Amino acid sequence: MRIEKDLLGEREVPLEVYYGIHTLRAVENFPLSGYRVSAVLIKAIALIKKAAAEVNAELGYLPKELAQAIMVAADEIMDGKWQDQFVVDALQGGAGTSTNMNVNEVLANRAIELLSGQRGEYSLVHPLNHVNMHQSTNDVYPTALRIAAIWLLKPLSNGCAVLQESLQEKEAQFAGIIKVGRTEMQDAVPIMLGQEFSAYAGAIARDRWRLYKVEERLRQAALGGTAIGTGLNADKKYIFMVNDRVRQYAGIGLARAENMIDVIQNADVFVEVSGLLKALAVNLGKMSHDLRLMSSGPRAGIGEIQLPERQAGSSIMPGKVNPIIPEAINQVAFHVMASDMAIAMAAQSGQLELNAFMPLIAHHLLESLAVLTNAVKILNDFCIQGIMADNERCTALLNHSQVSVTALVPHIGYDLASKVARNAMEKNITIREAALQLSVLPEEQIDAALNPRAMTRPGIAGMPK
């Protein structure tokens, strides 16, 4: 053990760990969820610490050798090393201070090692005096969250592009398959199966565009704002230089916020991003519900499409295969929508110059980005690409339905068309047969009006041109 001190006294810290007394107390104080802080957020914080150390050395505030040790340690963290040293629960009091201190301490102790010292020898590299120089949790944490969110937005947007392309391919593949269109779970009018997939593709295209555009909202950095955005204890040159350096290292178009007080205390940008993630979740969920319905059966349900078989579906019913991929996507959608509510509540609960609930916002936002990225990929790879249509089933259901009666309304009026529908229902015959029995129109005109493919295009089926 080694002995470390803080404001509250002394504590024994295991020799082998890189974190210190602040992290130890946080672990004891917040045994809440069991979730670790996002590795992407840790990477973003380490990137900021690297940039800060480099700029502080250039300005003469840190010895170059010391700054170089911090930078090397930060690079190691950004490369994925020492992940087992970030032990604070994702849900924590203190607006993210425990996470910031966890990173500060790991960086300090690793830098001490690189300078041939012993862990805990903070006279060489101090977590606060050196690693956290010219910084506060309150400007580092929200800026790191913005960076992490942008990093995660890119693969999600790319995944949506791939999914959109697959849906468009299915649109083309199923363009010639006509089926029953349904509203409120009841037979409505004919539609092409390809047209249904075109609607899914359109929805995902909107999501892709929203995600692409919302990145702009995240590009404001508050580094140098320190505690509440006024820049207290930060050199003016540092403020300009560190934001530029972080932009270079992060590889994204960050810019120093014109009003750092605003950016530090208000979390509405994360609510905006989360809202767009919720919109994507809604579209994925709706599509998954539809896929489950259209593939229901296989013999006693709708059965218009067949989903790829991924695994056996029951421990008691032999031969059963369930729509597990759409079911999983539905659950992701529920989760993201619930997370959106948590983010909104946390954002509006900030008081005055700081939002103390940033850890909750960070946890849910980054988790939503990650699970949606995975969900989009498995929906595309394990479901959409392998969907097959049952043309015979689509045709049989269409022929046995009454959906074509709507096409008669412009020719014979609603009331008489209703009689045709009732006649077909009572006698269990087709709409064509019922219309002929009631002699509502000449046979040739009935056939023209009841052409199902004409019903899937704008205009009045059977109307002379």
Based on the structure given, which CATH architecture of the largest domain is correct? Up-down Bundle
- Poorly predicted parts: none
Secondary-structure content class: mainly alpha
If you consult CATH, what is the topology of the largest domain? Fumarase C, Chain A, domain 2
* Cα gyration radius (Å): 30 Å
Apparent shape: elongated
Strand content: 5-15%
How is the main sheet built?
2 strands, antiparallel
SSE arrangement, N to C: EEHHHHHHEEHEHEHHEHHEHHHHH
How many distinct domains?
3
Write down the CATH class of the largest domain. Mainly Alpha
EC number: 4.3.1.1
Catalytic activity: L-aspartate = fumarate + NH4(+)
Keywords: Lyase
GO cellular component, one term: cytosol
